[in-house]
Amino acid sequence: MDGFDTRGVRLLVTGGAGFIGAAIVEAALRAGHEVRVLDSLRADVHGGEPAIPAGVEFVRGDVRDAETVARALDGIDVVCHQAAKVGLGVDFSDAPDYVSSNEYGTAVLLAGMAEAGIRRFVQASSMVVYGEGAYLGADGPTRPPARRAADLDAGRFDPLDADGSPLVPALIDEDAPLDPRNVYAISKLSQEHLATSWCRSTGGVSASLRYHNVYGPGMPQNTPYAGVASLFRSALERGEAPRVFEDGRQRRDFVHVRDVAAANLAAIAWTAGGHDPRAFNVGSGTVHTIGEVAGQLSAHSGGPAPVVTGEYRLGDVRHITATSDRLKSELGWRPLETFEHGMREFATAQLRAAVQR
Q: Which of 22, 203, 221, 286 is deepest in the core (most CB within 10 A)?
């Protein structure tokens, strides 16, 4: 991170008691930052009272509550916004909660920052804002439409070119057109737009980090909103075989939570400069299938082999992998955890307590 201001700041981490937020808090403390956490400890995320590191000020409250936000922002230099409702959701009845938690919550937070004169903002976005990933067809780069239920019912999972030939997955970059295909994705893109509007209004600097599939110790368990790696680990914890949807060949980029925390610290330092609002992909740079992840976790934990079910969820995309070259070249970040080491560690790592269902 040569050329960036890495001196200690007074940092607010919203959602700082959560999976990714807690990793950011730990990394920020090691970097010499003074840390405050704002977290509502939602029952569908937290299975009990979390352990807050010594020296961290904890404010229990919701980012949708303006008074609580104002109190949490007092004396803060930089905000790292991780509080959100994540995952695809159970069904469309989750939509109001996604919009309220993610969009309205971010609006309240940014309004509070504008009032408090805080001008540095880093937030968690997601790869889901792209929709399907990048593909190469007979005529070059292309973006396929959403998959049809009839094709999925017939086991035709891969997007096809106009002539019916298979499309070849490619890496997507931050300048690609955005095509959110579910409510969660829409809410994350709305957060990015809100941050851009805040920058224009206040002269602030914002970085939106588009996370790929984050995994690692401390993931939540037994929640339908968790990532696929957590669902596989939770199944193995119960002595059950991981259930792999579709044919297991969906391509993803699994990035370790410690590398994601390091990306946030790099972005915090970057916001000290006079930059336009910027989005950054955060991935490991290596492509693996969902079936590979299930197989690795089963093998390293000594659990039952995965079961490929052929089931699907409308709104899921087939392949989405991205290049993180912008984050590497502009912020000096590098992922340090290999897939092999990370999966071996995660296969037996402690998970968070089961959430209330």
A: 22
